[in-house]
Amino acid sequence: MRIRLSEIPEDGRHFSFNRETGELNEALRDLIDQAPYKVEFEIRPLGNAYQLQGKLITQITETCSLCGWDLHLPLTKDINEILVDEPAADRETHHVHGNQSVNFLNEGPSMTPVQNETFDAAEYVHEVIALAEPLYPSCGDPDCEHLDEARRKREELAAEFARADENTNPFAQLKSELGSDSPKTIKPTKNKKH
Q1: CB count, 10 Å around CB of 129?
Q2: pLDDT band at 162 (very low <50, low <70, confident <90, very high)
Q3: Contact between 5 and 117 (Cβ < 8 Å)
Q4: Tell me, what's the pLDDT at 75?
Q5: What's the whole-model pTM score?
Q6: CB-based contacts of 62, cutoff 8 Å, min separation 6
Q7: Nearest CA to 132 among 73, 66, 84?
Q8: How many other CB atoms are found less than 10 A from the CB of residue 115?
Q9: Fewest C-beta atoms under 10 Å: which of 25, 53, 156, 189?
Q10: Model confidence over 61-116: pLDDT tens digits?
C-alpha cells in the first residue's frame, strides 16, 4: 500500500487498515499469519516533511523460550514518525557520520526516509511488528504447567544423545574391545605387498 505524500491535504488524512480491508494482509502474513490487526494513523504535512501518528494493535505467535509452547502475545505500538523525502543514495557516496541516533529523544518522533514522496505503509507496518518481536518470548509464568514437561523432555533428549555418543564414540568402543582391567599394547600389522 503506497501513499503519495504530495496528495495529502494540509489538514491531513486518516488511514485505517485491518484484516477486513485487506490492504496489508499479504505483507503481514509472515509475521502474524491470520491474526487480526488494526492499524490507524494520520499523515499531515509538516513543513517540508510529513508527520505520521497513530496506533498498531495485533498479536504475534511465538514459542516460549522456557517451556517451548506456542504463545499468542498481544502487541500494541504507538506510531510517531517524521517522514522525510530523501533522494536515493549513490552507491559511491560515502557518509561521514555513522549511527546518528539520539538516545535521549526516545519519547519523540523517529525519522523515516521516503523516496519520491511515496510512503510504503505495508513495508513500514511490517518493520514495526518485526522490530517489536521479543528476543526471548516467555509466557512469564514461573509456575507454568508446561515447564515440568519441557524439563522431562530435555532430560530424555540428553540421555538419548548420551547413549548415541557411547555407541558412536570410537574410544569407548576401543576400550570395550581391549578391556578395562589392564592396558594392552597393540602391535602394528605389516603391510603385505601384492
Answers
A1: 21
A2: confident
A3: yes
A4: 93
A5: 0.67
A6: 70, 71, 73, 133, 134, 137
A7: 73
A8: 12
A9: 189
A10: 888 887 778 888 899 999 999 999 887 666 565 555 444 444 445 567 888 889 88
